[in-house]
Amino acid sequence: MGRAPCCEKMGMKKGPWSSEEDQILISYIQQNGHGNWRALPKLAGLLRCGKSCRLRWINYLRPDIKRGNFSGEEEETIIQLHQQLGNRWAAIAAKLPGRTDNEIKNVWHTHLKKKLKNCDQFTHDQVRKESNVKMQVDAENPRNSPQHSASELSSVTDSSAMARRIIKSEQVLESSESSKIPKIDEIFWPEELGLDNENTGFPGIEEFQKFQESGDVDAEMDFWDNLLSGAGELQDLPDF
DNA sequence: AATATGTGCAACCGCGATAAC
DNA sequence: CGTTATCGCGGTTGCACATAT
After folding, report:
1. Cβ burial, residue A163 (10 Å; 0-12/13-18/19+)
2. Is A132 exposed, middle or buried (0-12, 13-18, 19+ CB in 10 A)?
3. What does the alpha-carbon distance between residue A193 and residue A174 come to, in Å, rounded to a whole number?
4. In this prediction, what percent of chain A has a pLDDT beyond 90?
5. Per-residue buried b or exposed e for A189-216, using 16+ beta carbons within 10 Å of the residue's own CB
6. Distance C11 C1' – A57 CA (angstroms)
7. Would you tell me which residues have their CB within 7 A of strand C?
8. Of A92, A136, A177, A203, which cross-links A81 as Cys (Cβ 3.0–4.6 Å)?
9. B18 C1' – A3 CA distance, angstroms?
10. In Å, what is the CA distance from A181 to each residue of A50, A175, A208, A238?
């Protein structure tokens, strides 16, 4: 259909809101409700378009807005919901009380996307690595089952589980101030440091690989919890 | 200390859906 | 039933601040 933008009228103010404007909008909505957004600015005495007022109220001034950093739990929820719903930010926001679609969208683009990118990179490397190992094993033992190999690979391509690993591992790092604890990249990409897959120096690496193979995410989360609670013991790690 | 670059976030824009006429 | 107005959503932009060089 094509419709003229709501702010086409000249004289409408744009850009950041002043505290005076905020106050006018808050007190008007508290007294009268928002009603017709388009009519609101005129009635409230604001030189803004209705769209701008609505956005300001929904994303910033609403009393039930929860401000501050997202918890790991919230981030995990967003990742899982995004996997299910895609970029339907409003639908995702509906599952997170006090969070707005705009805020979630921002967090996604600034934090979570990067995490998943790292995760994808890890997954890609891991698949490649496991494929190489598999090819080597197959060459040595042609009777190896192809189905078994597929299930092994599927466990590392579950991006939700991977995201959980990333978040949990970051919690491990945040929980300790020891400079001897390797960064997540160092845990996940030991080959870049010249360490082979068999002996990374990462404590519990065998259990970690076991969970990956089984695909038992909950058991893996328990593993991370144990690692988190025993983060202090990681000081025994070799220098990287 | 000055400048360049990166990051986070609030706000804007355009479009589709839908209600109202 | 077609047209118009409004709302709500998702994508994008631009600015302020932080960090690196």
Report:
1. buried
2. exposed
3. 22
4. 4
5. bbeeeebeeeebebeeeeebeebbeeee
6. 20
7. A 1, 3, 6, 15, 35-39, 50-51, 54, 87-91, 101-102, 105-106, 109
8. A92
9. 14
10. 52, 11, 17, 9
Please name the helix (run of DSSP H) or strand (run of DSSP E) that holds residue A214, with its range, or none: helix A205-214
Q: What are the φ and ψ backbone dihedral angles of A155, each rounded to 5 degrees?
A: -65, -25
User: Full-prediction pTM beyond 0.70?
Assistant: no
Of A149 and A203, which is predicted with more confidence? A203
DSSP state, residue A149 = H
Paired tokens of A75: 């981030």
Dihedral of CA A75/A77/A80/A81: which sign?
negative
The answer to whether residues A107 and A69 touch, using CB atoms and an 8 Å cutoff, is no
What's phi and psi for A39, nearest 5 deg?
A: -85, -20
Tokens in use for A136? Answer: 């080597």
User: Which nucleotide is closest, CA of A55 to its C1'?
Assistant: B11
The beta strand positions in chain A, using DSSP E, are none
A30-56: pLDDT as tens digits? 888 888 898 898 889 998 988 899 999
